[in-house]
Specification:
With about 230 residues, the protein is an alpha+beta fold. It contains four helices and twelve strands. Strand 7 and strand 8 form a beta hairpin.
């Protein structure tokens, strides 16, 4: 219990750690009107046995973080690469006056994360239909970072700004011209027939999101064309 009290109390302190420790999000792609879960990654090579963190997350207009039935942000602890040594991690979050979302994560049993790099938090995103297609630079930013280990030693990065790019695409728009039409079907058929076309967006061409490009995708794209008409 004493370790837990020390750990939580450390969030209120400013104890500098002379090491490279940071939270960040990798660049990613997602479809308009679709959902995608990305991860908040922790590099704590400079702060061994990291166990807790807090940070502010900024997201662009047109993107939302999915909420649960009670209206809370639906953040979950990531088990990618076995980063979580504990199933007793507590996550709290709230919108700040500057529009960012403050996230705090700490272990109720005072255990540390495994390893020194990897994902610690799942962030479920929704890209709204009216979001502009293309690359949004600095789309997700992580600032105000504080990372604490099990002894209460803390690294504070008040000026650290970690940001990633987010590319938004239109599902079924295989040639990325902004429209879904017969040309997209031609691109998909070429792919099925192993004809190389450098203009193909394979992720967009995968109309049913099953990880493969096949005749089913052709049928779905044709359905979309008919719906537009």
């Amino acid at each position: 219990m004493q370790k837990l009290i020390t750990l939580i109390g450390a969030f209120l302190l400013t104890m500098g750690v002379n090491a490279q420790t940071t939270l960040k999000v990798e660049s990613f792609r997602m479809g308009l009107g679709e959902k995608k879960t990305i991860t908040l990654d922790l590099d704590n090579a400079g702060l061994t046995d990291a166990a807790a963190f807090c940070c502010n997350i900024y997201i662009p207009e047109g993107v939302e973080i999915e909420k649960d039935a009670e209206g809370n942000f639906n953040f979950t602890v990531s088990d990618k690469d076995g980063r979580s040594a504990s199933s007793e991690l507590v996550i709290a979050s709230a919108v700040q006056v500057n529009g960012s979302i403050r996230v705090v994560c700490f272990p109720a049993d005072a255990k540390a994360f495994n390893g020194t790099s990897g994902a610690v938090l799942n962030i479920p995103l929704v890209a709204l239909e009216d979001l502009t297609k293309g690359t949004v630079e600095g789309a997700i930013a992580v600032v105000g970072q504080e990372i604490t280990n099990t002894t209460g030693l803390q690294t504070v990065n008040p000026e650290n700004y970690e940001a990633c790019d987010m590319t938004v695409f239109l599902r079924s728009d295989a040639n990325s011209d902004g429209d879904i039409n017969i040309t997209d079907i031609a691109f998909v058929i070429d792919k099925i027939n192993s004809i190389i076309d450098t203009g193909l967006d394979e992720e967009a061409a995968d109309a049913n999101r099953d990880g493969e490009i096949n005749i089913t995708d052709v049928a779905l794209i044709l359905d979309k064309i008919n719906d537009v008409k």
